[in-house]
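Following up on my earlier thread - several people asked me to post the actual chain instead of describing it. Fair enough. Here it is, all 57 residues.
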Amino acid sequence: MEKRFHFLVYSGQFKLRIPKSLHRSLSIHAKEEGISMNQYCLYLLAKNDAEFKKERR
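Reply from S.P.:
Thanks for posting it. Predicted structure:
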């Protein structure tokens, strides 16, 4: 399934609506780590994606 999407062009951006409570939590955790919320969310998404790929093997 992943192979058929390799030719598409992605902008690297998408808008995501989340609950205010999650927004607050992500913001707090990012500040605790000393990074931007964008960097923190990128870390979480990449980590989860890697774990998902590992489980599918």
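The two ends are 14 Å apart (CA to CA). That should answer part of your original question.
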